[in-house]
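Async update (no meeting this week)

Hi team, since we skipped the sync, here's where things stand on the single-chain job. The sequence we agreed to prioritize is pasted below, unchanged from the tracker. I ran it this morning and attached the output directly underneath so nobody has to dig for it. Comments welcome in thread, and please keep replies under the output.
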Amino acid sequence: MSHEHVHVPTRDEILAGTSRPLPRALYTIAVTLALLGVVVFIAGALMGVDRVWHALLVNWLYFTTISSAGVMFVAVQRITTARWSRSVIRFLEGYVAFLPVAFVLLVLIFLGKNHIFPWTHETLHIPEKVVWLNPWFLIPRGLIVFGIIASLSVWYIYTCVRLDVGHSPEAGAKWARGLRERMRRGFQDERREIHSTHSRQGYMAVGLAFAFAFGWIVLSWDLSMSLDLHFQSTMYGWWVFMGGWVAALASFTLLTMAWRRYLDRYDLITEKHFHDLGKLCFAFTAFWGYLTFGQYLVIWYGNMGEETHWARLRLIAPWVHFSVSAVIMVFFVPFFGLLSRAAKVYRPTLALFAIISLVGMWLVRYLEVYPSLYGEAHALPFGLWEIGVTLGYVGLWATCYLAFMNAFPRVRAVLMTSPYRDEVQVPVDPETMEPLPAHE
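Output:
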């Protein structure tokens, strides 16, 4: 009885096969879109068009929740000691590159607060909201909370990338050469580094999870829910960051498809990965739908004026068409579309549902902001300013992502090839590297 020989790629083969340089045309397109967005924003700001500031906030919420949720999903892989994602998770780690830029944009949003937030010029009648929405309390709080999330995210991804940089030959974009040299300082033997990194990341991942959940609840209150001074919902924060989670998984799915095709590594990125990603998209689409309906149901049967007006406003003209479209695109289409296994592993359908989810989630972010600011408007405030600023964000996010992916190894080559990669399931003594006795 014969057995067909299956070649297992070595670490050098994996690194060489995933290091194909990105085409300069991608950078050119990304930078051009970013500059276009900057021009549109500056033009609108100089002309006194507040809509560019509103679009700035909409897209900040959209792209930053996606980036932050992407890093959190990477941390969840450590919390669950997942192994299925080792060959693809670096595609998601690149999302961290946008978070420092997002911090700068948050500062810009606060500088333009008078163009965006009602609490800067309207009188508050609830004592608790007077304190909570005081700019001298809200702005430092927002910057500190997001600064903690961004710092922990960058630190966590640094430890992920360091493990591969330390065991790889020097390669990558010149801008990150000094950073790669720093990662290699004090690098120990492979086995010890794998165990120490795994142990360190265990604490960091849990800390990041708490910061992510608590931080985004606070940020959603301050930057989104506070746009309507009379509305409040205890489920709002969960609803906001879970929307970013769904969009992060959808975008991760699309990027995994793109990288698989570009790198031509069908041996490393297989049908099983897309099946798993499809199941994740399906599961968290269902959870987002549960949160959305749960929040709406409580508002409906509570029938309290300070809550019902928020939902009613989004169900009348001119917002109703966007509201219905958002619910259909984020929940109904991907939920029913991804029920079958075939839809998850057939890449055209999986890509279609992922794109629909991403577009629908942008509409959700738009509906978080614009109806609260414009009320019962006569016409939908959507046009050149929103499109221009959105394209600018697309270009800026893509520029950050491409810079990261061109600077560091694109897969977790060490954890894919090391003979010690699965030892981390058993704790060891950090000095002797001997397994610790099992706890009774």
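Quick observations from my side:
The mean pLDDT is 94.
Residues 190-223 form the longest helix (34 residues).
Reply here if anything looks off.
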